[in-house]
Amino acid sequence: MSASGPFRPVRHALCLLAAFQDVITRITFVVAVIASAYLTLVLAWEVIARYALNNPTGWGPDTAAISFALITFCAAPMLAWKSGHANMNMVVNALPEHIAVWLQRFTWLLACTVCLIAAWFGFAELKRVFAGNVMMIAVTPIPKWWLMLAIVYALSNMGFYFLRHFLCTWAGSCEQNNTGAT
What we know:
By secondary structure, the chain is mainly alpha-helical. The chain has helices at about 10-50, 60-80, 90-95, 95-130, 145-170.
């Protein structure tokens, strides 16, 4: 059926959801950039405090570790969206095109499934650490649910991007793979 048929409202709603996902991904990528700047500044200060002032901070390494996790989990969905992740495609490129398309579809679907299942388990753990007010074992008490929230966000968002890539293999070409690649 064409996009002008009875599925047009559904297609429009899915395009709006995809646009919303892209906006959230851009915002969290900015969070990853800010966390990267924070990590750089805190580690630089920690080196000065430890070796020049002989007075290391207790909070520096703890918050740097959280910052590193935020960098990883807030930036990962952008890589999934833009296909910037490691792509070992020698086998796919060596196959005839009609077989390569099916192998690529299988790969996108497998990546989607694994990410969403891992996000589901992560969400169960997120609820547990939030309800139990679990803190990370560190000098500075930091609630563990912050980290779990970033992990669940990254896995679920990446799973939906892999689903979008999978669906685009059926459409022939897809705008979402090419937009914003500046």
